[in-house]
Amino acid sequence: MICSACQAWIEPIIDTVSSTETCPECGDTNAFTTFPIFIITGTSGAGKTAILPDLRRLLSTWDIFETDILRDSSGNWDSVWNNWLRIAAGLSESRRPVILSGTVLPDTLDGCDDRYRFAPVHYVALHCDDAAREDRLRAR
């Protein structure tokens, strides 16, 4: 990020107890707000993508994303999830609730640089029986 005080490109020093970000170059400190985020997860074929059109219709003021659209952006799923959390943080600052849909475990999200911006993180894990998943994947 760019420090608003000294304009240096920085990795801020994060204090989650006081909810502040401090510039390591000039010492400028700013408060940050945490936001809730909603994650729809599950194995391939569980129905994550299939429910998104209905969610978008029902939650028209929410930003809802299928995270696979960035899968080719880095070749590294940790980087992809870091990018999604940065996008979600920007949207959340505009007071828009965010749902991310994709296969992810809490440990992966917890390792992301911008994870501190979200509290709480709500997970919904979709599941279907093996036969249904096999049928869905073969149909692709």
Q: What is the strand and helix layout of this fold?
A:
Elements: E1 13-15, E2 20-22, E3 29-31, E4 35-42, H1 48-58, E5 63-66, H2 77-93, E6 98-101, H3 106-110, E7 118-126, H4 130-139
Parallel strand pairs: 4-6, 4-7, 5-6
Antiparallel strand pairs: 1-2, 2-3
Low-confidence stretches: none
- First-last Cα distance: 40 Å
Mean pLDDT: 93
Number of strands: 7
What order do the helices and strands follow?
A: EEEEHEHEHEH
User: Biggest β-sheet, characterized?
Assistant: 4 strands, parallel
| Radius of gyration computed on alpha carbons | 17 Å
Number of helices: 4
Beta-strand level of the residues, as a percent range?
A: 15-25%
How are the strands ordered across the major sheet? Answer: 5-6-4-7
From the spread of the alpha carbons, the general shape counts as elongated
Helix-and-strand structural type:
alpha/beta
Query: Roughly how much helix do the residues carry, as a percent range?
Result: 25-40%
Word description of this protein:
It is a single chain. The chain has helices spanning 48-58, 77-93, 106-110, 130-139, and strands at residues 13-15, 20-22, 29-31, 35-42, 63-66, 98-101, 118-126. The protein has 140 residues and is α/β, with parallel strands linked by helices. A four-stranded parallel beta sheet has the order 5-6-4-7, sandwiched between helices. A hairpin with a 4-residue loop joins strand 1 (13-15) and strand 2. The longest helix is centred in the middle third of the chain and has 17 residues, at 77-93. The protein is elongated, with a radius of gyration of 17 Å. The relative contact order is 0.20. The model has no long low-confidence stretch (mean pLDDT 93).
